[in-house]
Amino acid sequence: MADADDAVIGRRGSQPKGVxxxxxxxxxxxxxxxxxxxxGTSLRKIAEEIGVSHAALLxxxxxxxxxxxxxxxxxxxxxxxxxxxxxxxxxxIDAATRNVEVPGLVTLYSTLLAASLESRSEVGREFxxxxxxxxxxxxxxxxxxxxxEGTVRDxxxxxxxxxxxxxxxxxxxxxxxLEPSVGLESTLRTLGALLRPPA
Amino acid sequence: MADADDAVIGRRGSQPKGVxxxxxxxxxxxxxxxxxxxxGTSLRKIAEEIGVSHAALLxxxxxxxxxxxxxxxxxxxxxxxxxxxxxxxxxxIDAATRNVEVPGLVTLYSTLLAASLESRSEVGREFxxxxxxxxxxxxxxxxxxxxxEGTVRDxxxxxxxxxxxxxxxxxxxxxxxLEPSVGLESTLRTLGALLRPPA
Lengths: 199, 199
Description:
The structure is a homodimer.
Chain A: H1 2-8, H2 16-36, H3 43-50, H4 54-60, H5 64-78, H6 89-99, H7 105-116, H8 123-149, H9 158-178, H10 184-195
Helix pairs in contact in A: 2-5, 3-4, 5-7, 6-9, 6-10, 7-8, 8-9, 9-10
């Protein structure tokens, strides 16, 4: 995933030293966002807080949006991911429950996603459009295989189920953050139950 | 819904003239957001664009967040709503497809929802927590009645289905805005199919 994201967010400084410095900046930027949130923070202020010059920050990131998208992609890539799992409702439940454990990650994701809908967004719009497309394609292929083997009901289109699982996971993380009694995992397991073929 | 929202967003100026003026400001503010988006617009700039003084705006709204939440509630209330429909998947499909027809409404909703997750949010957090709670309660009651009459499967908790329908609707509106081929209405109809009891 890191390579695809780097392409989208226009990584500069491809020499090893530049890459390492960029990672360092992102590591510190994540801490700033955890502590302060993403809303209303200028690039200049972020530079101040992570202790680099504004010019240095602009060397690596063209805009605040580009930095924020890179921070999100970096935070997501940094998390331990279970390797080689078949994408499906279980991997989405796993990702959703791990997301809400990282303070600020869902907030940052939601903030960037909302900003990507603004007409002047470029980096964010491309990042999220690409991300959703990839996720939907992976899930659809996996759900089709499960439909063929009889573990997912096959009377509904796999691509609809893929879009629904992603939407439900995104939406429920927010509902859960606002009201923890909602039951993020149990509600997603109910979606899993809806996907199974009638006994 | 207007009364509940007014309580949350702390309406001032309860005399008729103040109310009318406030509505007028909100009508003009909606146009500003449609044209410019909600991101990065200060209260002073908004006042300038809608042609009122900054002080006048502060008389009606304590903060930028309060104004934005009021704009969203106002835009939502202003849309024609089908009266006396039983809440359920069909009313949610109807609301979702009408939402995406109003330019900027989903963007404003998503921006405010993301901001409500920030720790310093007060107005927005209360508005959305209350809104989700009311929607979930209405949908749950309605789904329970449908489970009792046999039109919705009853082997899964109605409150999970309610949270899922809202999450799917919110999430799919965003996916659709980024990629219109996703099929907002058809995908939500598939969720409707998942809710029906096995034939």
